[in-house]
Amino acid sequence: MVVVPVPVISLSLGVALRKITISLTRDGKQTANSKSVLMLNPGALTLSAVFVAADGVNAVQRFVASAVDGQWLLTALDTAVPKRAASRYPAISEDVTFALDLNDGSGSGGGVPATLAAVVKVDGLPAARQVVAVEQVASGEWRVAGYGVTAGGSVALDLRVAGSGQVYVMALDTWGTVFQPNLGVAVGTLIRPTVFLGWLYRVTQAGQLPTTEPAWWDDSMQGPQPLGTARAEVVRYYAPQGRGPIPVEVT
Fold it and tell me: What residue spans define the domains of the chain?
């Protein structure tokens, strides 16, 4: 008996689709007037698709993944007077949300409005620090989403995000002013030695720094010490601390 194997042809159960969402703002704010986005081949500048945001904010389309994966030029248009436009040059390889802000090019921040509550503590106590939120967008590029100061230990950051990116937050200590001979200093000024060993020196009495750099001290010497005609106390410098990715609240 001869057994002849039955040929089997594999059939795909479905075609991979790619969802592309575009979120639009005008001069940094969401507006209700209809907007359109042209999806262009960046080489020949041929039109491949048109997105229409009837609500003025969001436009969504699904494509066969193999047809859209790659580099594209997205150009958003708002014909309301005064007219606005914006472009992005993204690489598409997964379901993605793009944020475009249509503005006059004078520097208005783009993206979807969002907020993030930030709290900073040093040695368990609320502390004032500069806080910067950065976002890694779908293309892999990094952008600053917002920043602020935790006066009293907390701040509600006003952000502009791409929507599909990942947001990270960093708290930054003050780096201080490097030592300079005979420099006049005011109360509160932070002085940094030319050879940094982790300590800064906060001026407690105004005056003038010495002609030659002193032998710096650490926290084993508490209280203000002479520093030229000024006096200063040692304080620890805290290296930047980061958290993320952190979910943000889109407003």
Answer: 17-102, 112-173+240-250, 177-236
Collapsing DSSP to helix, strand or coil, 153 comes out as helix
Give the Cα separation of 158 and 139 in Å (integer): 23
DSSP string, 25-50: EETTB---S-EEEEEE-TTT--EEEE
Fold of 17-102: Immunoglobulin-like (2.60.40)
Does residue 5 have a pLDDT over 70?
no
Look at residue 14 in the predicted model and tell me its pLDDT: 63
Whole-number CA gyration radius for the chain: 28
Distance CA 170, CA 132 (A): 5
Tell me the CA end-to-end span of the chain in Å, nearest whole number: 74
Q: Reply yes or no on whether the pLDDT at 230 is more than 50.
A: yes
Residue with tokens 């008996």: 1
**Token pair listed for 224:** 């203000």
Tokens in use for 245? 């990715």
- Residue 11 scores a pLDDT above 80: no
